[in-house]
Design a protein that fits this description.
Number of strands: 3
Distance between the termini: 11 Å
Strand content: 15-25%
Order of helices and strands: EHHEEHH
Length: 112
């Protein structure tokens, strides 16, 4: 399981919504291939509105969840390149570099 928390850059909420719509619409098959290639069985995202702005909480489930971001960075797969460009556009996240700061740390899981 992997969790990613990322801000949505100011003025990019509608671009994020379009990104998500593309993933569940015209790019759905590409996302399914991405998930298969990366050992993911679930890929979900929540929009959280905070006093500091919009945030996305992404949940990745599957045997490859912990390796997705390190594998995504150098990938030249056409969908992966598009996906990375959207992460940079809406979140300011450069997938070719380690994230700033530590990854979320699991403190409680009632299903474990």
């Amino acid at each position: 399981m992997g969790v990613i928390v990322a801000p949505i850059l100011p003025g990019k909420l509608e671009a994020w919504k379009q990104f998500v719509a593309d993933l569940s619409g015209p790019r759905k098959k590409d996302l399914e291939d991405f998930n298969r290639r990366n050992g993911l069985t679930r890929h979900a995202a929540w929009l959280a509105t905070t006093p500091d702005g919009a945030m996305v909480v992404a949940y990745l489930e599957g045997s490859g969840a912990d390796e997705v971001m390190p594998k995504l960075g150098p990938s030249q797969n056409a969908f992966d390149v598009w996906f990375k460009s959207k992460l940079l556009e809406v979140h300011g996240l450069d997938a070719s570099k380690p994230p700033p700061g530590p990854l979320p740390e699991l403190y409680f899981d009632s299903g474990a």
